[in-house]
Amino acid sequence: MRYSAFRILKEGLTGNRGWTPVWREPEPKPAYDIVIVGGGGHGLSTAYYLAKEFGVTNVAVLEKGWLGSGNIGRNTTIIRSNYMLPGNEPFYEFSMKLWEGLEQDFNYNAMVSQRGILNLAHSDPQRDGYARRGNAMRMAGADAVLLDADGVRKLCPFLDFDNARFPIRAGLWQPRGGTVRHDAVAWGYARGADSRGIDIIQNCEVTGFQIKDGVCSGVETSRGTIAAKKVAVCVAGSSSHVMAKAGMRLPIESHVLQAFVSEGLKPVIPGVVTFGAGHFYVSQSDKGGLVFGGDIDGYNTYAQRGNLPVVEDVCEGGMALMPMIGRARLLRMWGGIMDMSMDGSPFIDKTHIDGLYFNGGWCYGGFKATPASGFCYAHLLARDEPHPTATEMRLDRFSRGRPIDEKGMGAQPNLH
Ligand SMILES: Cc1cc2nc3c(=O)[nH]c(=O)nc-3n(C[C@H](O)[C@H](O)[C@H](O)COP(=O)(O)OP(=O)(O)OC[C@H]3O[C@@H](n4cnc5c(N)ncnc54)[C@H](O)[C@@H]3O)c2cc1C
After folding, report:
1. Do the beta carbons of residue 53 and residue 108 sit within 8 Å?
2. Which atom of ligand 1 is nearest to the CA of 204?
3. How far is the CA of 413 from the centre of ligand 1 (A)?
4. d(CA 218, ligand 1 centre) in Å
5. Whole-model pTM?
6. Were both Cys, which of 3, 115, 196, 367 would link to 75 (CB 3.0–4.6 Å)?
7. Which residue owns the Cα nearest ligand 1 atom 2?
8. Domains plus CATH for the chain?
9. Binding site membership of 39 for ligand 1 (Cβ less than 6 Å)
10. How many Å lie between the centroid of ligand 1 and the Cα of residue 237?
């Protein structure tokens, strides 16, 4: 079924009896060409692009819970391509371009809203750093505008410009950044993959891999054994846990990241605003709630709930930036498990086991990468060679001395 204004009109006039389920609930088959482990944003987009771009449809996506139960339904919905390093920027700009045509492409309303993202600078050296980043972005074909304090004031007059500790001196503005409704992304990709014949199987946990003589030929699941010519893992926060079942130790740690939503307010925040002197970012949802977050909790965990010290830290960042936020009441908060890599950048690569592929290490930033990650992973799976924008995202980059350390923090996952 195609969605359109005409369809809404027709269904409205005929009692809404013609709508069909957005995807099927098939039983797992004994064998597939490709089994994708993890039905989050990346698993579903990989399935979608495998079918649409590479004509591979004998594929199953195995999800241990329900679609949207992981980070795809827990993130703060921000998309941007304001990266600096050559290993990252072309990839994230590719993702941005895919976002721009996504809703027409998969015929689903994902509420892609390019209202812009503003990174604030609180000192002259920080402004210089943003000038460098903005130039790198523009050289890679992205958009970036360096604003002085007056330029920032025009966009966001409510900010605390003369804060004694963190005065606002400048900002890096990416007009094409913004937000996308996260769970609609999962549903849209699921619908697009399902309609092309891919089996999306919920409540099916992968509990092990069938590996013999260095070759992976399938998976053990809570619903039986499934054979596959290729197994593609993309389980985000569960990466280390799942790949350990294949005997692999990854350069990834799992940490919890929290998100917060306030009560609904009248429109106040034009796009996304990030604090440059701590970790705080905020946007406003279509329902009016301020959606905000900050740092990870800072200890290794697989729990999807965080602790109060980080709540205090995030709220302090908000108060330093826009003191009026102190009047807003917090409506809800939650946590998600982040797959933090050692250099803050992801992996889309084959493993040393034939037929076993890995996608993970997305840290805080995997939502914006969802379209490109799926496209590039599908490219790797279908052609056995990396997509040109993802050639650096390899598992062996540390041993080759080629980390992609966007923040220059070194091997400190909790600081990326
Ligand atoms: C609070 C928070 C805020 C964030 N904000 C942003 C943001 O604003 N912008 C941004 O770009 N990124 C953001 N992120 C990061 C982003 O959400 C993630 O990097 C991205 O969603 C990870 O990819 P995914 O969607 O495939 O993960 P997930 O949705 O977590 O998918 C992985 C799936 O694998 C499944 N799984 C795990 N183990 C197994 C198994 N053994 N068998 C079968 N299935 C299994 C899980 O159930 C899960 O559904 C945020 C994350 C959090 C938690």
Report:
1. no
2. 43
3. 17
4. 23
5. 0.97
6. 367
7. 75
8. 19-81+83-108+182-251+343-415 (3.50.50.60), 117-178+253-341 (3.30.9.10)
9. yes
10. 6
CA 72 – ligand 1 centroid, Å: 5
Phi, psi of 386 (to 5 degrees): -70, 150
The token duo for 168 is 């606002």
State the distance from the centre of ligand 1 to the C-alpha of 394, rounded, in angstroms.
Answer: 20
> Is the minimum distance from the CB of 70 to ligand 1 under 6 angstroms?
yes
* 240 contact partners, CB below 8 Å, separation of at least 6: 249, 250, 252, 253, 254, 339
Our answer on whether the CB atom of 205 is closer than 6 Å to any ligand 1 atom is yes
CA 336–ligand 1 middle distance (angstroms): 7
Q: Residue with the nearest Cα to atom 3 of ligand 1? A: 75
* pLDDT tens over the chain, length 416 residues: 899 999 999 999 999 999 999 999 999 999 999 999 999 999 999 999 999 999 999 999 999 999 999 999 999 999 999 999 999 999 999 999 999 999 999 999 999 999 999 999 999 999 999 999 999 999 999 999 999 999 999 999 999 999 889 999 999 999 999 999 999 999 999 999 999 999 999 999 999 999 999 999 999 999 999 999 999 999 999 999 999 999 999 999 999 999 999 999 999 999 999 999 999 999 999 999 999 999 999 899 999 999 999 999 999 999 999 999 999 999 999 999 999 999 999 999 999 999 999 999 999 899 999 999 999 999 999 999 999 999 999 999 999 999 999 988 888 888 88
